[in-house]
Amino acid sequence: MSKMWEYSKLWGLRFTETFLQLFSEKNSDGTKKLRFKANELEQRFAEQLLPADMVYISTFLNAHPEVVDVDLSYNGIEDEGLETLCNITLAHQNNLQHLNLSHCDITPVGMKVLYFTAEQHGFVKLKTLRLTGNKLGPTGGHLAALFAPYCPTLEYLDLGDTDQTADSVDCIFLQLYRSQIKILDISRVIPCNNMSQVNNVFLSESISELIRLNQTIVEIHAQKSSLDAHDIESLILGLKLNTSLKFLDIGYNNICCVGVEFLSEWLKTRPPLLGLCIAGNNIKNHGGVALSFGMPFSKLRYLDISYNYIGNEGIIAILNSIKKPYMLRYFLLWGNSFSHPANKIIQRMMLSTVFEQRGIDVKIYEVDGVLYAARYPVDKYKQQYYGVMDYGCAVELKIKKNKIETRDDKPRALVNFVHIDRYPEIEKKPKQVQVSEEKERKVKICEDEVE
Fold first, then answer.
1. pTM for the structure as a whole
2. Helix H segments across 224-355?
C-alpha cells in the first residue's frame, strides 16, 4: 500500500495545469477534448493511468468546463477510478458530453455507481458513452439499461464485447424503444445464459423490434453475433417499418447467400439506408449476383463486402450495378477471390472517375499483361473505433486543433458515419474569412454574457 501511495504521489506531480492542457485538443467551436490514451502514455512515461490519478483529472474537469470530451481508453482506472469521476465531477453540475471508457477494467460494480449517480443527482448529460471491452456481463447490461432513462441526452451507446446475453440485450432495448438514441453498438453478444442456450432468433427479433419502434436510430452495429439467414429475415420485418436507419453493420456473422437475397429484396423497396456492411459472412458468387439485383434501387453510398468468397462473377455483377442515381462513394471488396476480369473493370471505372482511389480498398497494377489487385488502406473503421494512434508511435506533444463540422460547412456530406471518414472533405475557407468568423463568434459570446 505504501508503494502505491509513493507512486501515486510522484505520478501526481506530473498532473500540473500545463501538463493537462498539453493533452487537451482544441476544437473549432471553443470546446476541448482531453485525450489520455494508454498507448500514448506508455510510450512517453512507461505507465498507464491508475485509479488514484482520476482525482487530478476530475479536478481539472471541474476547473475547465470547456472540456466536454474525455478519452480514457485502455487505462486501468477500474471501478475505483470511475467512482472517483462520478463523485467529483458527474455528481455536480458539469459539461461533460462524451466519455470513452473502452477497455478500462470496469465491472458491474462501477456501472452500479454510475447508475446511482445519474439517478440521485441528475447532472449526467452524456451524449456518448463507450464501454466496449469491459467485462460487464448481464448484470452490467441490466444496469446500463437502468441508466439510460436517467440520461435522456444519450445518443451513442457502445456495449460491444461486454459479455452481454440475449436476455440483457432485450432489457436494454426495452429502455431504448422511446429514447433519443442514434447509434447503438451491441457487437459480440453471447446468445446464452448460465442455464440454457437461447435461440439466435430471439436476438434478431429484439433488434427488429427496436428498429421498428425507435424512429431516431441512425446506426446499429451487430457484428459477430452468430446471425444467420433466418435472423436476417426476421430483422427485415422491422427494417421495412423504419425510416431513420442510415447504416446497418452486420459484418462477420453467417448470413451466407440466402441472407443477402433477403437484403436485396429489401433494397428494392428503396429504403433510406446509405451504408451497409456485410463483410465476413461466407457470401459467394450467388450472393454477389443477388445483391446486384437490389443495388440499382438503393441509395447506398457505402458498401463493405470484404473478406467473403465472392469471385469474378459476383464482383462483376456488383460493379455493373453501381451506376445508379445515388453513386457509391466507398466500396470495400478486399479479401474476395477475384482476378484479372474483375480488375480490368475496376481499372476502367477508376479511369472514368466512377471510383476515386480514396474510395476503394484495392489498387490495380499490371505484371506481364495481367492485372492484379493490392490492398489499399482506405478502411480506417477499426483504427478509429479502437483508438489506434495515427502513426503507431507517440508524435510531438503539442496542442492539436480539431475542425468541428457545422450546418453551414460545404460541400454537403454524402457519407457521414461515426468512425468513417466524411465524404467529401470540408472545403477549407480562406484565412481572412476564418479570422472574421472567429471575431464574430467572440462578439456573440460577449453579447450573450451581457444579456
1. 0.89
2. 229-239, 256-267, 285-294, 312-320, 340-351
